[in-house]
């Protein structure tokens, strides 16, 4: 906590806001003027186990001039740090030091409600301004603005968590959508001795990235894996995000593997099942590709929103309509045949059914923590 209040006032605010717990020890840095006394105070504080640090702005400035790294290392590992009698420039400097000496995955969030907090808010990775009696300077300079401090928990635990989860799902599906059609094109080229022939041309290629798959994929921003009241009741769900498991190298290579498998299943499935009718490869593979993408989006969703259902139906309806309009791209008589219907169904099942089985086994034997909490809340 960085504040311009006196030491006693800052200590009382830290305790009343529960920044400093009742069972925490408190160590107050004495006023220092020399390098020796600074080192003595740092060594004294190191002997305290899990003690909260309270230090004035003048003392902090002197300590940073002599032992910047040592002081920041022990301050970062403290349960809580209170800097009182702190100027606006010092607030911004402390935020910069936290960004410098913190872990590379740590993000610094600065929260303020007055004009003297603007420099601190702008120096942080994320700035949150509170509209209060001191005006709207902090709110206008911040990335996020709230009316009351109590809204911070919902901003972080609900909206912040959902934003991270949704961004991860959206980026993964955008990657999956582009990678699967690229692998299919590569397989198609290898079948025809690496000839530079495009598998899908014209409107199909443009429509795949827009109207055929855009609505379902972007509807993932409405998904939520837990209800807001559960996210507020169990803050550990937010802490779990710090491990970065939703968007990491592991998930990247996992989606690359999924995209490669599904592309191979569609192309080689069409080659095996429709060996005699491979002239209709565009109709067969493109239909299976659209169905696979729609099914994968549905498989990823945790909580269905009405707009998600509309997006799925609208995308499939647009594709059915294009089958009727684009007669130059599709053979209408072949599309009405039973061979086309059952063949595309089999290819889609081959590409999607193994992933459904794996997801069922994961939920059954090793469910994620949010799945456990949702089941527990349902039982209650």
Automatic annotation (TrEMBL):
GO terms for cellular component: endosome; plasma membrane; trans-Golgi network. It is an enzyme of class 7 (translocase). InterPro entries: ATPase_P-typ_TM_dom_sf (IPR023298), HAD-like_sf (IPR036412), HAD_sf (IPR023214), P_typ_ATPase (IPR001757), P_typ_ATPase_c (IPR032630). It is a multi-pass membrane protein. Signal peptide: none annotated. The chain crosses the membrane at residues 174-194, 200-222, 252-272, 278-299, 306-328, 340-361. It catalyses: ATP + H2O + phospholipidSide 1 = ADP + phosphate + phospholipidSide 2. Its EC number is 7.6.2.1. Residues 140-367 form the P-type ATPase C-terminal domain. Pfam families: Hydrolase_3, PhoLip_ATPase_C. It is found in: Endomembrane system. GO terms for molecular function: ATP binding; ATP hydrolysis activity; ATPase-coupled intramembrane lipid transporter activity; metal ion binding. One of its GO terms (biological process) is phospholipid translocation. This is P-type phospholipid transporter. It comes from Adineta steineri. The lineage of its organism: Eukaryota, Metazoa, Spiralia, Gnathifera, Rotifera.
């Amino acid at each position: 906590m960085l504040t311009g209040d006196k030491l006693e006032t800052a200590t009382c605010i830290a305790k009343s806001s529960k920044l400093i717990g009742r069972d925490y020890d408190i160590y107050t840095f004495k006023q220092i003027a020399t390098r020796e006394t600074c080192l003595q105070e740092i060594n004294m504080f190191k002997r305290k186990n899990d003690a909260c640090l309270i230090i004035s702005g003048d003392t902090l400035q002197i300590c940073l001039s002599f032992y910047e790294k040592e002081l920041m290392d022990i301050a970062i590992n403290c349960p809580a740090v209170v800097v009182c009698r702190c100027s606006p420039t010092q607030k911004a400097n402390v935020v910069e030091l936290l960004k410098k000496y913190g872990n590379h995955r740590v993000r610094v969030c600065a929260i303020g409600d007055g004009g003297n907090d603007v420099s601190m808010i702008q120096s942080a990775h994320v700035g949150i301004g509170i509209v209060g009696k001191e005006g709207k300077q902090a709110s206008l300079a911040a990335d996020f603005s709230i009316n009351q401090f109590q809204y911070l928990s919902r901003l972080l635990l609900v909206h912040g968590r959902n934003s991270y989860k949704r961004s991860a799902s959206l980026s993964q599906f955008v990657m999956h959508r582009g990678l699967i059609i690229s692998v299919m094109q590569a397989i198609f080229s290898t079948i025809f001795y690496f000839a530079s022939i495009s598998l899908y041309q014209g409107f199909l290629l443009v429509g795949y990235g827009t109207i055929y798959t855009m609505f379902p994929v972007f509807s993932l921003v409405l998904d939520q894996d837990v209800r807001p009241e559960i996210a507020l009741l169990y803050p550990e769900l937010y802490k779990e995000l710090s491990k970065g498991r939703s968007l990491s190298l592991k998930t990247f290579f996992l989606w690359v593997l999924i995209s490669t498998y599904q592309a191979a299943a569609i192309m080689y499935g069409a080659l095996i099942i429709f060996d005699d009718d491979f002239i209709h490869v565009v109709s067969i593979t493109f239909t299976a590709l659209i169905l696979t993408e729609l099914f994968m989006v549905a498989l990823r969703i945790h909580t269905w929103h009405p707009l998600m259902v509309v997006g799925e139906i609208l995308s499939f309806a647009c594709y059915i309509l294009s089958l009727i309009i684009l007669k130059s791209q599709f053979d209408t008589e072949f599309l009405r045949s039973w061979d086309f219907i059952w063949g595309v169904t089999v290819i889609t099942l081959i590409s999607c059914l193994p992933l459904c089985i794996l997801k069922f086994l994961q939920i059954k034997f090793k469910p994620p923590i949010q799945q456990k909490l949702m089941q527990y809340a349902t039982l209650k």
